[in-house]
Amino acid sequence: MSEFVKNLMSQVKAKNPSEPEFHQAVYEVASSLSLVLEKHPEYRKEKILERIIEPERVIMFRVPWVDDQGEVQVNRGFRIEMNSAIGPYKGGLRFHPSVNLGILKFLAFEQVFKNSLTTLPMGGGKGGSDFDPKGKSDGEVMRFCQSFMSELFRHIGPDTDVPAGDIGVGGREIGYLFGQYKKLRNEFTGVLTGKGLNWGGSLIRPEATGYGAVYFAAEMLATRNQTLEGKKCLVSGSGNVAQFTIEKILHLGGKPLTISDSNGYIYDEAGIDYAKLKFIMDLKNVRRGRVNEYADKFKTATYVALDPSVDSNPLWNHKADCAFPSATQNEINGKDAANLLKNGVYVVSEGANMPSTIEAIEQFLDAKILYGPGKAANAGGVSTSGLEMSQNSLRLSWSREEVDQRLHNIMKSIHKTCVETAAKYGTPGNYVNGANIGGFVKVANAMLDQGIV
Ligand code: NDP
């Protein structure tokens, strides 16, 4: 670790105690940036990195609501407005009981670099609540969303801050949030992305993160003159990102073998085909059930319940070629990474944000596999949100083919930036350095231009 990174990290830890995920995200980026800071003393002089790690604004608020039994419930709401150097704050809202300030700060920090990589004019932000939508009625989710937006609305706007979905926030929640914003502001604007198709949403937005992660994997494979055809793929999660990752793997001739949720995972040796994917989508999006039901329905699958006493995830311990972590942060630890490598996995394309620990990443880099970090590989979601914003501004809707083509081109361009930047800074094939440096430079230069603000 360079002296600069060491000093920076001790300051970050002292100033942001009890935020291990934020420390982890900063450490990963700062380690890559040592290479740039040596070449660009102006960034050091203007304290660009020290400024980037400090959110421009953090909003924390009470979210009271009434449940179906008439009991008052109180949750905590957050919005981290991290960096607006290249555009309005942009990033999702996460509703999950694990949400806290540190997790949202790590997500907002990552978002700054990811959004820059997309080539679209979007700054970075993230928000959410420790509210758990699981097991809640539609009425409860609606009342919660209305209360959440009753505070958030005064901080956001189509030219200020444009939230979207993330874990626990899908089409239903975006609808309730948008409805409340519209009522309070008395205006119909593109203040949220991921909207319904008949009220300002974009085709392909639901598919975009998963499709993008697979396009990114295909680009990485192309550097070795290979395709996804016939490749065995491990996928974690069973939500938005996982579902459309599986769909695109199928389009490109790959064989998805697994899905999971926070209770366990299924392994289907026959592969998940289109009919089985349809079952998963209905199970998760309509019936809001658990993945163990898949193994009851399809006899080629086995279900393994999560055992919290075990320090590795057996999902990552199957013979395969590719892995698409699409659930949550730190779902691949050092042991899991060793298992993946042992089982022949040589492509990892991260649909989730920061799913690999620092120990896991080090192993992937040492093994020189095709490792696409989340801020590059899952940027398709926010890219298509950017395209939704453009369509809202133009008051036009592009066709499915047009949006998909633009998404595909953006993923190719992100891949190219990563490859070229990694090579330029003397670490060819290192997509971590490529993504971190590629994302940083544009934001840093904008900050230099805009003075000390
Ligand atoms: P969803 O809420 O649709 O699905 C999340 C999935 O991950 C569910 O299967 C959920 O299981 C599982 N999961 C969530 N938390 C945990 C946990 N702590 N342990 C184990 N499993 C967990 O979310 P998305 O698919 O939208 O998001 C998945 C990942 O992708 C996140 O890291 C998110 O930040 C990232 N991402 C999402 C984007 C988007 O456009 N939606 C864009 C870029 C990144 P369960 O049902 O049990 O909760």
Structural class by SSE content: alpha/beta
Strand order within the widest beta sheet: 1-2-4-3-5
Tell me the distance between the termini: 30 Å
Report Rg. 21 Å
CATH topology of the largest domain: Rossmann fold
- SS summary, helix count: 17
Residues in helix, %? 40-55%
Ions, cofactors and other ligands present here are: NADPH dihydro-nicotinamide-adenine-dinucleotide phosphate
Shape descriptor reads: globular
Percent strand equals 15-25%
Q: What is the architecture of the largest domain at the second tier of CATH? A: 3-Layer(aba) Sandwich
What's the helix-strand series? HHHHEEEHEHEHHEHEEEHHEEHEHEHHHH
CATH class group of the largest domain = Alpha Beta
Which stretches are low in confidence, meaning pLDDT under 50 for 5 or more residues running? none
Please tell me the overall pLDDT. 97
Q: How many domain modules?
A: 2
CATH superfamily of the largest domain: Leucine Dehydrogenase, chain A, domain 1
Number of strands: 13
The biggest sheet, with number of strands, parallel, antiparallel or mixed sense and barrel status, is: 5 strands, mixed
How would you explain this protein's 3D organization?
It is a single chain. The chain has 453 residues and is α/β, with parallel strands linked by helices. The protein folds into 2 domains: 3-187, Rossmann fold; 208-368, NAD(P)-binding Rossmann-like Domain (Rossmann fold). Helix content is 49%, strand content 15%. The protein has 17 helices and 13 strands. The strands form 3 sheets. It has a 5-stranded mixed beta sheet with strand order 1-2-4-3-5, with helices on both faces. Strands 7-6-11-12-13 form a 5-stranded parallel beta sheet, sandwiched between helices. Helix 1 runs antiparallel to helix 2, helix 9 packs antiparallel against helix 10 (274-286) and helix 15 packs across helix 16 (400-424). The longest helix is centred in the C-terminal third of the chain and has 25 residues, at 400-424. The model has no long low-confidence stretch (mean pLDDT 97). The site of NADPH dihydro-nicotinamide-adenine-dinucleotide phosphate (NDP) has 23 residues, from helix 9. NADPH dihydro-nicotinamide-adenine-dinucleotide phosphate binds next to helix 9.
